[in-house]
Write a structure and sequence with these properties.
The structure holds two protein chains of two kinds.
Chain A: H1 2-16, H2 19-54, H3 62-75, H4 80-93, H5 100-125, H6 129-137, H7 142-172, H8 184-193, H9 198-227
Chain B: E1 4-13, E2 16-26, E3 31-35, H1 42-49, E4 57-62, E5 65-66, H2 72-81, E6 82-85, H3 97-108, H4 113-126, H5 142-155, E7 160-164, H6 172-187, E8 191-195, H7 199-205, E9 208-213, E10 216-221, H8 223-228, H9 233-244
Parallel strand pairs in B: 3-8, 3-9, 6-7, 7-8
Antiparallel strand pairs in B: 1-2, 1-4, 4-5, 9-10
Helix pairs in contact in B: 3-4, 3-5, 4-5, 5-6
Classes of the chains: A mainly alpha, B alpha/beta.
Chain lengths: 233, 245
């Protein structure tokens, strides 16, 4: 039985790795990569901004602080699929002619921002209050305090969960297939529907996801050692 | 005119009043020590002066000018004239000794790096830390960290220095090295507020001693008067207890 399956896969291989199929998979990989990479970069940047806004104590920044808190608390609690549908229907209601890829991209950015903002906030809060006090009494501005004192000390708390989130997040981009975006999971389903063996198709999809997420995890480790050196150990 | 004047100051932690009717006048070059039992409001008074805890009412005047602690620009001005050294040193853990001392003059005051570094090295040598410029705080002993913290406070050339129980977190043998550093500053004629439980030291360096209890100033006088002939019963009780040790 097993021998029969391997034989079937071997027979399919030349047809499966045809020029057209390779381009199809490469495009799907590119889409997953773009959704993941842009989601991670935008999420990381805006996540930092939202965390910083959420931690201000200035009375004038209160409306911004409330807006940031509502955004973070809301989108961390909504399933990704629901966010995807929400973005899709909101833009449809606004009669904005967005591609499915754009809808998926906006959704992943929203989700990544909300989750990373919370990770960053907890990292920033892990730095002892006496560091804030010292910076304040030396007349550092809020941004100087964050940039020069707090963030450099918070990296070691922020980076591991952020990269853990990125790895989960790459897998979650598969949900974009639900609105018809041709990414890796969608490509797998299509090839399976074309009659190729599920083992071969999803084995290939697995390898491609691994190709995306493993280097990212390594990069996270590299950043941890670069940005969060442990001294005196 | 006094360099610093505190008039009828009141401060709260939430609904709890921690300082009330504080009146104090300090001349330039005076060394004022705040003594009293734990929780009497000594450290809180320093936090209020630095704007870490805004007062509820009353006034702080520097060179005759009343300060508004709700005005951010004024707060910055206050903090550029006063520097505080904390009990737990509060050095920036991600920076070397030299960076800890130079970061504020360079980044906040915008002074030239070379000039600031030269001055910082001078200060660090003065406090006996000239050989540790490239060390990180977690590589130093408590006494060494506290001396760096004193150098950092001085790097901004403040006119008033507040020392908040700077020896309280140190091993007894490290206390002397920090107190020697403070003696050096005292000899320079800098105005200082010292919160300390080191009574021998307080008696030796202070020009004025303020005894506080339960958020109030109970008695103010020169060290000999407060320690040897206290006017108030509460001061007598406190001084009697600590001198028996």
């Amino acid at each position: 039985m097993l021998g029969q399956t391997w034989g079937q896969i071997a027979d399919e291989l030349p047809r499966f790795f045809s020029h057209y199929n390779l381009i199809f998979f490469a495009k799907a990989l590119g889409t997953t990569f773009a959704l993941s990479a842009i989601g991670c970069i935008v999420g990381f940047t805006l996540g930092f901004v939202l965390a910083a806004v959420r931690m201000t104590t200035r009375p004038a920044a209160r409306p911004l602080r409330i807006a940031a808190t509502v955004f973070i608390e809301l989108f961390r609690r909504i399933p990704f699929l629901v966010t995807l549908m929400l973005v899709f229907f909101v833009f449809q209601a606004l009669k904005a002619d967005l591609s499915m890829f754009s809808v998926a991209l906006i959704s992943v950015c929203v989700i990544a921002t909300a989750f990373i903002a919370e990770i960053v906030r907890s990292g920033l809060e892990s730095v002892h209050q006496n560091q804030w006090d010292a910076a304040l009494t030396l007349n550092f501005s809020y941004l100087q305090t964050l940039r020069l004192v707090i963030v450099p000390q918070a990296w070691k708390i922020i980076l591991p969960p952020v990269f853990g989130f990125f790895v989960l997040f790459i897998k979650d981009t598969a949900l974009a297939s639900q609105i018809g975006v041709i990414e890796l999971a969608f490509a797998g389903k299509t090839m399976n529907n074309k009659g190729f063996s599920a083992t071969l198709v999803y084995g290939t999809v697995l390898a491609l996801y691994f190709m995306l997420s493993y280097p990212l995890a390594r990069f996270g480790k590299y950043l941890e050692t670069r940005l969060a050196p442990t001294r005196n150990r | 005119m006094p360099q610093l004047e505190i008039v009828d100051l009141k401060a709260n932690y939430g609904a709890h009043t921690v300082l009330e009717r504080i009146n104090l006048s300090v001349e330039k070059g005076e060394i004022v020590s705040l003594i009293g039992p734990s929780g009497s409001g000594k450290s809180t008074l320093l936090r209020v002066l630095m704007g870490l805890l805004p007062p509820i009412s009353g006034q702080v005047r520097i060179d005759g000018q009343a300060l508004d602690y709700n005005d951010r620009a004024q707060l910055r001005r206050i903090r550029s004239q006063m520097a505080i050294v904390f009990q737990q040193y509060n050095l920036f853990q991600n920076m070397t000794v030299l960076d800890n001392v130079t970061v504020a003059p360079i980044k906040v005051k915008g002074r030239a790096r070379k000039q600031v570094e030269d001055y910082a090295v001078q200060l660090l040598e003065k406090v006996g830390m000239g050989a540790k410029l490239a060390s990180y705080p977690d590589q130093l002993s408590g006494g060494q960290q506290q001396r760096v913290a004193i150098a950092r406070a001085l790097a901004l050339q403040p006119s008033i220095v507040l020392l908040d129980e700077v020896t309280a977190a140190l091993d007894p043998e490290l206390v002397t090295e920090v107190l020697d550093t403070v003696r050096l500053l005292a000899a320079d004629g800098m105005t200082m507020f010292i919160v300390s439980h080191e009574m021998g030291f307080v008696r030796e360096v202070s020009s004025k001693v303020v005894f506080m209890d339960a958020g109030h100033v109970v008695e103010t006088g020169d060290p000999r008067q407060v320690f040897d002939q206290p006017r108030e019963a509460r001061t007598r009780e406190f001084v009697g207890k600590i001198l028996r040790h």
